[in-house]
Amino acid sequence: MNVARLLRGAVGAAGFLIAGELVVRFVLSDDVAFPAPSKILYEAALLLADPVFLEGVATTLTNWVLGLLAAIVVAVPLGVLLGAVAPVERALRPLLEFMRPIPSVAIIPLAILLIPVDGLMKISVIVYASMWPILINTLYGMHDVDPLAKESLRSFGFGRLAVLARVSLPSAAPFVATGIRIAAGIALVLAVSAELLAGGAAGIGVYTIQAGSGNRMDLIMAATFWAGAFGVFANFVLLVGERRLFHWHRVRAGAADS
């Protein structure tokens, strides 16, 4: 991990917080409607001892993880199938291209009507939203496989499944990992959005609704801060794992660019 890059990011974040603090204190002069960053961070720290908020965090993260795992189970095999069997891709590509641009948040009201079970409804929305980057990246990864490597293996008598397992899947794996990392952020957005629109017993989105009903902008921003922090942490963990598992892919990409 690049230490200089981390330091630049920390300096940028600190500068943003200081600028926000100064604007609220000396320009807006309204700490209720526009809480200062220091107050938001203070309330965010207090939320770590709030059992209601922690219950909401557990609910949101559970739906997030389950939805992301289900999206991986659906999207990766489908992407491999489309990438490996050209007639199937040609048959399904128009349908996929039609469905992919539909805003995921827009299907939440439809999901509420069709799926009466609250948890299942939210997980289903997360799956729909997060499967697309995984599917598309898997498909592109399958197309990026070196045809010479596949032909070489076939010349030694290996069948289609052996070529798929020994060449195509390892070559496409870095693309799949990138798709999962992108999908993780989308899944979190939909997990909170579904709670905001559909409500429920607990969740970060539910907590922010309750805070808003009490006109507690500081609590809304503090809960939002933790939602963003979870997304940043997940992206960091997935990025580190991706670089360690597929460092050879970055080396190969660098050689191809040179």
Q: What layout of secondary structure does this protein have?
A:
Layout: H1 3-28, H2 37-47, H3 51-84, H4 86-99, H5 108-114, H6 118-143, H7 147-155, H8 160-198, H9 204-213, H10 217-245, H11 247-257
What does it look like?
With 258 residues, the protein is mostly helical. It has helices at 3-28, 37-47, 51-84, 86-99, 108-114, 118-143, 147-155, 160-198, 204-213, 217-245, 247-257. α7 packs across α8 and α8 packs parallel to α9. It is globular. The model is unreliable at 251-258 (pLDDT under 50).
Classify the oligomer.
single chain
Shape descriptor reads globular
Residue share in β-strands: under 5%
Helix content: over 70%
Which stretches are low in confidence, meaning pLDDT under 50 for 5 or more residues running?
251-258
Distance between the termini: 22 Å
Summarize the main sheet. Answer: none
Class by alpha and beta content: mainly alpha
Give a count of the beta strands, DSSP E runs of length 2 or more. Answer: 0
- Strand/helix succession: HHHHHHHHHHH
Which terms would index this structure?
0% strand, 84% helix, 258 residues, mainly alpha, disordered C terminus
Produce a short descriptive summary.
The protein has helices at residues 3-28, 37-47, 51-84, 86-99, 108-114, 118-143, 147-155, 160-198, 204-213, 217-245, 247-257. The protein has 258 residues and is mostly helical. Mean pLDDT is 83; it is low at 251-258.
